[in-house]
Amino acid sequence: MRFPLQGAGVRPYADPAFADEVLRGLRAERKTLPPKFFYDDRGAALFEEICEQPEYYLTRAELEILRACAPEIGALAGPRCALVEYGSGAGVKIRLLLDALERPASYTPVDISRRQLADVTAALGRDYPALAIRPVCADYTRKLDIPPLPVRARRVGFFPGSTIGNFHPAEAIAFLARVRQTLGDDGVMVLGVDRRKDARIHNAAYNDANGVTTKFNLNMLDRLNRELGADFDPSLFRHRAFFNESASRVEMHLESVERQVVNVAGERIRFDAGETIWTESSYKYDHDALRVLVGAVGFEIKRLWTDEAEQFWVAYLAA
Fold it and tell me: pLDDT tens for residues 44-70?
């Protein structure tokens, strides 16, 4: 279903595809919104703030690993690689790889946040003037067109941050299959993966004491108000995040604190008290589950590095 760009509370600049996907999720018996919608400009900034919270170990653990293993990654990948990063974010981790790779031929950052992508591209362009940078502003959860990569350059995919955990298993397999097709038979992938551990550690990471993750979650409602003419009252929703032991995932929800009706893109969406919008899943992997996941699309784990506390993995996958 498509929605008119005028009238019925929809702002003239609303993206019809965005409205369609939002309403499909909110019409469902179990309401959902995909986590990619967190990342407007404010959401992207809030996520960088989350990464600095003491409970959120993931970024610190991954950086610890990358600082230690980047030279080995560079040696394994070889010279003149074409690097493709899915979800470039603030561009911190990629510098560790760029410094370790021998004369990388090109770098293609893919990100949904246009402003952040522009800022990162400009900064890297200043610091790596010899590097060919070809940014792509796109939703990497869907099929996308990567600009032509240098001929005869080995392709290296980079997907840090445990973002693979945001995909349900079937979605993760579909994403990795598209990546493998892009990288080709000689390609390799460097993948960040959060390890399954005590539920208390997972729960604390997504419920930080400073409430930054709460702001991050609720910001999605502000975005819908701004971009789709919705009338969510964020004070009538609360952040919920918990580790689902049986599914091995953290779930993040926005819970309605009372019965209410919200207008979204000209449509009335009803909420019961206690009903939630499921905004994110973050799957946590043990070794067997990770091996099965990547093996489903023809990747093999060649190296697996962890941090001192053994909370996180960086995996080197060969096609």
Answer: 999 999 999 999 999 999 999 999 999
